[in-house]
Structures are given as structure tokens and as C-alpha cells.
Amino acid sequence: MLTVFLFAAAAQFFFWGMFSHYAFPKQSQVQPAETGPFPPVSVIVCFRNEEEMIDNCLVSILKQEYPGDFEIVAVDDNSTDKSATIVRQLVDETDGRVRLLQPGPTRPGKKDALAFGINNARHEHILLTDADCLTRSHNWLILMTRPLRQGAEVVLGVGEYAYNGWKIIDRFQRFEAMYVALKYLSFARFGLPYMGVGRNLAYQKSFFQRSGGFAAHTDLPGGDDDLLIGNNALGPSTVCVTRMHARTMSRLSGSWPVFLRQRMRHQSVGFRYRPVHQVLLGLVALSHGLFFLLGLFLLFTPLRWLALFVYALRFLLVLRGFRRSGLQGANAGAKKGYKAQYESAWVVAVFDALLAPWYLMLGLLGTLPARRW
């Protein structure tokens, strides 16, 4: 048992030590000067019943300081509220910079609407975000498309969740967002991109078309931001952008049932991942679970102090990875000073221990037919 525990600990040390370092490398506060040319960009925003947020989302994009031309392609995925009316007003006010598309009946998920928007986009450079997202700065567009201008095919960005109180669900959702970002960014930097987040993702239109769009997984409601990337993106042509000014902010789901459905939908497409991605992600999850399970058993043996020492070392790496990310996570909105950091450490410790049973539950529930979700 001790041997297995130490192997699991070694795997976790490597993940939290090496991977977090590469996922969120330290960057200069001074942004490099931008040089042209600046090709036109199509920003795709799919929406369905987003009358509360769609205006703020599109206005935040319109305020982008991009030297070249860009359009906003707003795709109405069968809204039944006033979302489309709000977008039409912006179409009239912006002299055509905002375009409203209505593809008609679509299947569950947003892939039909997204594919319709991309295929009707006027420009080669495609930047995606969600209708409930706001940009972190006026430089979001220029920073997210810089790698495309330099020859990259895919750009993986970071999508944060806005602070909205101290509810457990909000804090856990932000913490898990950091954990997910840590994995997909670090894998991509090691040459194994397996997913991005539709809240902040860019690629060449030719990449989407050459990949066959979403044709390989039209039978699944999800997969637009992971199966497309994982099955088609190449390491050398995939770039991660983690600067704070290049991030988006999204609202939290607000309830456990909604959050659970979102995560189950994402988890349910994992069986379509490439085998190498499944194996590596499985090893990360397995080592995490064994570390806590066997460590708990060792607490009731004479080796308890060794188990506690190893746990303390790993926890320092977890805290380091969490704070390097710069994500708003479980410490978002905390009071300044020592007490806030102390509380944050406890929150991270608890949520870290809960990740293993959380993903086990998602994996089991993800095998259920969609109609039972």
C-alpha cells in the first residue's frame, strides 16, 4: 500500500509541480508592442434566451481596440425571449458590424448554431465566446488573435467565472474551472491539446473546415470545444494565451442542478477522446484518488507522519498552482490580508479532496442517456 501511495504522490507532484508551471507561466506586465498587418476577424456568439446578458456581451466586444476590421456574428439558436430583438437594435446602431443569423430548427446543444455561424463568417480568423461572457479588457480581441496572425491554427484562451458571493456552489465552480484550465493548458503546452473552452477560443476557419466541422460527433449534444480540438489540433500549431487582459468573465450557473447538467454533458463525451488523452487524464484522476484514499488509510498506521508530510508537500504545490493561475477561483472577492489567504487555503484543501469523488460521480452519471439528465 505504501508503494502505491508513493507512486500516486509522485504522479501528483509531477502534475501540480511541472504542469502548473507550464500552464500558467510568469509573464511580463508590459504587453509587447503590436505590429501589423491586422487581418479581419469574425467573432461568433451563439445565444438562446440570453436577453439579460446579450447586450452587455456584444457591447463589450464592440469596445475592443483592434486596429483591423472585425465583425460580430450573433447566431440566434431558437430564442423565445427578446434576445433577437435586442441584437437587431445593435445591428441597426453599428452600421453592419453586428450581424444577426437565424439558422432555424437545430438539434440539442449549440453545434448546429455554431457551425452555421462559422460557415457564414466573412473572415478567416474566428474567435468564439458565449453570450453570457464579458471581456476582461479592451485588448481581448487583439491578444487572442495575435497567435493566428503569427501562423497558429488554434488558440486556447481562459474563461473565468465572475465572483458572485460566497455560496459553496459558486466557490466550487470557480475552483473546478481552475482545475480544468490547468489540465487543458498544460497538456497543450506539452504538445497534446485535447480541449478548449467555448467561452474563449479562436481558430482559423480553414482548420474548422479541414477538420470536417462537427460532422464526426453530430450525435452528441456536446463536444464543440473539446472533440474538435482534441481530435484535430496539432501541438506545434496550438498556442495558449493566459494573460489576464485576454480572458473572459462568465456568470455562474447559480444552482447545483444546472451546474451538474453542464458538467455531465461535458463529461459524457470523454469516451470519444483520443486514446492517449484518455489514458493520461485517467492517470491524473487515478493518482489523485489513490493519493487521498491510501493516505487516509495510512493515517491509522505507524506511517501516519510520513503520509501527513507527503500531503503537506503536495498541498503546497496545489496552492502554488492555484495562485499562479490568476483565476478568481475560491479566493475571489476575499478580504485582503492574512485572514483571506488562510481561509482560501482551507477552501482549496477541502475542494481538492472533493475532486476525486466529484469526477467519479460525473463519470458514472455521464454514462446515463441524455434523456435522464
UniProtKB/TrEMBL annotation:
Gene3D superfamilies: Spore Coat Polysaccharide Biosynthesis Protein SpsA, Chain A. Residues 42-209 form the Glycosyltransferase 2-like domain. The keyword Nuclease does not apply. Keywords: Glycosyltransferase, Membrane, Transferase, Transmembrane, Transmembrane helix. SUPFAM superfamilies: Nucleotide-diphospho-sugar transferases (SSF53448). The keyword Transmembrane applies. GO terms for molecular function: glycosyltransferase activity. The chain crosses the membrane at residues 279-299, 305-323, 344-365. It holds the Pfam family Glycos_transf_2. PANTHER family: POLY-BETA-1,6-N-ACETYL-D-GLUCOSAMINE SYNTHASE. Belongs to the glycosyltransferase 2 family. This is Glycosyltransferase. It comes from Neolewinella aurantiaca.
